[in-house]
Each structure stands twice: as C-alpha cells, then as structure tokens.
C-alpha cells in the first residue's frame, strides 16, 4: 500500500472532525476504491460502512467486500468496449470468448457507428450506483418483486427474458439487456423501450452478427450458430454496446475456477451469462443485488424460466457450463455479503 492510500484509509476510518456527510462519503469512496486489491477484513468494512443509515447507497461496497474474499480483485474494468479497446491488456491476447483477438477490425467498424460507450450521461455521473442482475429463473414467479427490482438505478436483464406481461414479478425497467445471437429476443415486438442492447460475444461469428444488426443489414444464412438467431434488432446503433469480454475470462478462471483449456472455449469452461453479468456489476456498481438465480437439481420438474414451461432438468444437457462449481462461487458471494439475493435461490 502506498502512503497516500494509507492516509486516505486512516481518514476514512477516523472521519475528519467537522467534515460534512458529503466529505465523509467521499473519503469512504476513496478508501473503498484504493483499498480494493489489498486485504481488508470484513469487520473493518462493517465499521466503515456501519455509520451510513440503512437505505443509503454505499460507495464502493460490493468491490470492497469482494476484495475480502478475492484479495486480487480490483474494481477497474470498463463495462463496454470503447474506441481504446485495443489497449485492454487482459483481453487483447485471447480469442473469443475470453478476449477479442482477431476481431479488432470488425469491432472498430461496429464502434464507429455506435458512437456511445457508456450507460448514458445520467447513470455514468451517479456517484453511487445500485445495480440488480435479473436472472431468468422460474423462482421469480409469484413473488411480486417487480417494484423492488425497478428501484435499482441499473436493471440488467438477460437473453430473451420477457418483461411484457410479467411486470408484477420482474419489474418493468430494463437498463441493459445482455445477450448473444442465439439468446436474443427474436420478435421485435417483445423488445422493451429504452434499453441498451449489449452483445456478449462467444465466437467470432457473434461479432459479425452484431455488425449486421448495427448496420441494419439482412442476415445471410444461419450457418455457424447453434440455434436460429434474431434477424434484426429494433435498436438504434447508438443504443448498442459490446460487453467487455474480461468478465467472461475473470468469472471462468479467477472466480469459478473452470479449466483453462489453453484459453479456448471447451467442455465446461463457460460461465452462464448471469454470472458474467454479476461479474460485470461487481466492477461497475457500488452495490449489487440479484434475483431469479438458482438451478435446483432437486426439483427437476420446476420451471427453468419464469416466462416459459421448460423444466429445470433441461440444464443437465448443458456441456458448456459447470452448474455446481458456479453455484459454489455464487454462494460464496452471498455468504460474504458481496451480493444480495432477493429470491434466495442461490
Ligand atoms: C439450452 C441452452 O443452451 N440454454 C442456455 C440458455 C439459452 O441459451 C437461452 O435461454 C436462449 O435460448 O441461456 C443461458 O441462460 P438463460 O437465458 O436461461 O438465463 C439467464 C441467466 O439466468 C440464470 N439462471 C437462469 C435460470 C435458472 N433457473 N437459474 C439461473 O440462475 C443463469 O445465470 C443464466 O445465465 C445462458 O446464456 O447463460 C443458460 C442456458 O444453459
Ligand atoms: C461452438 C458452439 O457454437 N458451441 C455451442 C455452445 O455455444 C452452446 O452453448 C451455449 O452457448 C451460449 C453462448 O453461445 C451460452 O453460453 C449458453 O448458455 C450455452 O448453453 C451449445 C448449446 O447446446 O451448443 C454448442 O454447439
């Protein structure tokens, strides 16, 4: 730790006399961001944040908690690729899905036309952001969590999870929808208003597909996809983004501990999209909640998703994910209070 960091931490633990709540919050924020990466005890954090009243957003909380269980965790990692993406050293040398090597030109051409690389002015300037990642699990049904979900500053939704008709249980707000070609909503009428369409790319063809969607070109054939894909996305280019592939890499190798396989996609080394989204949120939000997570193998007949009747047992067919190892990781996050699970399915 540098002297500067130490000074900052000291100030945060023993607030400067006469400092207003604004300054105190600022110091806390500094302490949380500089401290990440060094070991901070959980008790120390409770002490630091304990003074904030219930319901007040705690700056840097999720990242600081994360660093108590993953000491190497550092908050800095942009949510989306921007024009400087080639400088991202952790991903520029890996092929998709763990990086973007070989896809630089196509990404450049996508980013030229999307022209926006953040969440938008209002959200980007918030000093403390609360995010919720809504998983697609059937566990969301009949819990009437919609209004609680809508209270978050950032609501992340995944793949083809419908909002229309399910507002009471899942909310009506969508800030970003993260997906890939095979997972994307196919019926243009099912897209909600005002959300950012975010590609999480798993293979080179996914970038090619996004370029066609962004440039509003007709798709030619569906060869190379593992299921049919959306032919168009009813979003302006300025509402489209590319998720930083670092979150797939970090979730797989640092957090869940999936096989490295020379850095290539292989059997059981891909995190589910929900876990990728949680990883993104830990880097970009101050507080992180989740809902709709949980694969319960003891209930093979329970609904897998809240919006359709596929059964839980269907997940057994997945050869890409390691559901039990991933569950261990998510449980660790809940237990250490890094994330709050509104549906208690993890
Ligand atoms: C057959 C198949 O490949 N199914 C996968 C489907 C499928 O591609 C899409 O539904 C689109 O058709 O997508 C996945 O995910 P899916 O779209 O089902 O759900 C999004 C994320 O929510 C979490 N989830 C979901 C259901 C459940 N009972 N418990 C949960 O915790 C997971 O974190 C999940 O990632 C995916 O992309 O990860 C995971 C699934 O493995
Ligand atoms: C190389 C290739 O396309 N592999 C396909 C996998 O991506 C795909 O897994 C699916 O891959 C998706 C990304 O494209 C998500 O991670 C999803 O959760 C996962 O189930 C499976 C589905 O059964 O089919 C293979 O042929």
TrEMBL record:
Topology class, membrane: Single-pass type II membrane protein
Keyword annotations of the record: Disulfide bond, Glycoprotein, Glycosyltransferase, Golgi apparatus, Membrane, Signal-anchor, Transferase, Transmembrane, Transmembrane helix
Pathway(s) served: Protein modification; protein glycosylation
Compartments where located: Golgi apparatus membrane; Golgi apparatus, Golgi stack membrane
Swiss-Prot/TrEMBL catalytic activity: a beta-D-galactosyl-(1->4)-N-acetyl-beta-D-glucosaminyl derivative + CMP-N-acetyl-beta-neuraminate = an N-acetyl-alpha-neuraminyl-(2->3)-beta-D-galactosyl-(1->4)-N-acetyl-beta-D-glucosaminyl derivative + CMP + H(+)
Record's GO cellular component terms: Golgi cisterna membrane; Golgi membrane
Cysteine pairings via disulfide bonds: 131-285
Top-level taxon in the UniProt lineage: Eukaryota
Record GO terms (molecular function): N-acetyllactosaminide alpha-2,3-sialyltransferase activity
Stored InterPro entries: Glyco_trans_29, Glycosyltransferase_29, GT29-like_sf, Sialyl_trans
Cell inner membrane found in the keyword field: no
EC assignment: 2.4.3.6
Role summary: Catalyzes the formation of the NeuAc-alpha-2,3-Gal-beta-1,4-GlcNAc-, NeuAc-alpha-2,3-Gal-beta-1,3-GlcNAc- and NeuAc-alpha-2,3-Gal-beta-1,3-GalNAc- sequences found in terminal carbohydrate groups of glycoproteins and glycolipids. The highest activity is toward Gal-beta-1,3-GlcNAc and the lowest toward Gal-beta-1,3-GalNAc.
Family assignment from sequence similarity: Belongs to the glycosyltransferase 29 family.
Protein name: CMP-N-acetylneuraminate-beta-1,4-galactoside alpha-2,3-sialyltransferase
Species in which this protein is naturally found: Astatotilapia calliptera (Eastern happy)
């Amino acid at each position: 730790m540098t002297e500067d960091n130490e000074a900052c931490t000291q100030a945060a633990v023993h607030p400067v006399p006469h400092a207003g709540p604004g300054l105190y919050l600022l110091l806390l924020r500094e302490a949380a961001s500089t401290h990440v990466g060094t070991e901070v005890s959980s008790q120390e954090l409770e002490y630091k944040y304990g003074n904030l009243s219930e319901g007040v957003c705690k700056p840097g909380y999720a990242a600081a908690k994360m660093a108590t269980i993953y000491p190497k965790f550092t908050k800095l990692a942009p949510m989306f690729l921007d024009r400087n993406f080639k400088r991202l050293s952790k991903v520029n040398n890996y092929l998709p899905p763990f990086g973007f090597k070989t896809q630089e030109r196509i990404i450049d051409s996508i980013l030229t036309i999307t022209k926006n690389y953040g969440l938008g002015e209002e959200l980007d300037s918030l000093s403390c952001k609360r995010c919720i990642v809504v998983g697609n699990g059937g566990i969301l049904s009949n819990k009437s969590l919609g209004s609680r979900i809508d209270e978050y500053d950032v609501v992340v939704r995944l793949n083809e999870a419908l909002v229309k008709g399910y507002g009471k249980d899942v909310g009506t707000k969508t800030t970003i929808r993260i997906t890939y070609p095979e997972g994307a909503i196919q019926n243009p009428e099912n897209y909600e208003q005002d959300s950012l369409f975010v590609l999480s790319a798993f293979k080179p063809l996914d970038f090619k597909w996004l370029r066609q969607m962004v440039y509003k070109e007709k798709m030619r054939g569906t060869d190379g996809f593992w299921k049919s894909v959306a032919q168009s996305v009813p979003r302006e280019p300025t509402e489209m983004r590319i998720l930083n592939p670092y979150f797939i890499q970090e979730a797989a190798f640092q957090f869940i501990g999936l096989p490295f396989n020379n850095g290539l996609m292989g059997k059981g080394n891909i995190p589910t999209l929900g876990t990728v989204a949680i990883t993104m949120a830990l880097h970009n939000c101050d507080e992180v909640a989740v809902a709709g997570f949980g694969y319960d193998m003891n209930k093979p007949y329970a609904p897998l998703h809240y919006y359709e009747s596929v059964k839980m047992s269907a997940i057994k067919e997945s050869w890409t994910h390691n559901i039990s190892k991933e569950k261990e990781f998510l449980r660790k996050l809940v237990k250490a209070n890094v994330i709050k699970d509104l549906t208690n399915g993890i």
